[in-house]
Amino acid sequence: MMMKLLKYDLKSMAKVIVPFWIALFTIGILCSAQIKFGLQNMGGAGNTLLVISFMVFIALIVAVMVMNFAVIIQRFWKGLLKEEGYLMFTLPVSERNLILSKGISAMLITMGTFVVIVLLVLAVGLMHGLELRQLAQIRIPDWFTAKWGFYMIAFCVINILSGIYHLYVAMAIGQLSNKNRFLCSFAAYIVLAIVFTIVETLVLEGSSTRVYDMVSEWVYLAVGAAEVIIYHIITEYILSKKLNLE
Q1: Predicted local confidence at residue 219, as pLDDT
Q2: Residue 49 and residue 147 in contact, taking contact as beta carbons nearer than 8 Å
């Protein structure tokens, strides 16, 4: 059942975000071509075209990241806290699985967005003189098996999940209000951010005397994992015991 939930959530998110990925990549390539043309024609019109194309290129990347953020919020809010929640909570699955399905799907979609942005940057680099043989010299598998490879992967995954669950727990707290739920969710997000930042700072400062100490880096990873777990526990408790569907 968990796999069916995951498939459903991924499909729902993909229907919204994938067209934006395609638009980002397509328009990004066109903007890059215009930038290249502008560099080859450094007159007044060429400079104007260069500036406009670069601004559009950056705006597209920001727009897709914002849309990714919006899709994560929309799927949790609409799927569990509004009318669709009546159906979801009648399924023979636990609240934990419902939350995990949303969280894993959101993480995969976010990773997909970063992959599309990286591929676009590489494509733009190739258009502007980066050679394939230069890319071939970058031994990505060796990097991932190096000393910091696992740490960086875990760091990225935990930070993505922490950001997603931060949104989830804020929305779960916000739905406890009978009105102004969005405003309450926003306020909860800010308060949680302040509290966890203070706690994280105190823990990290007490765990190491050196800023770049190896131990402190792994403690930072552990703190991030603890935040994800705490966020999940609070969210699951609220959805299990204090759910207030619209």
Answers
A1: 78
A2: no
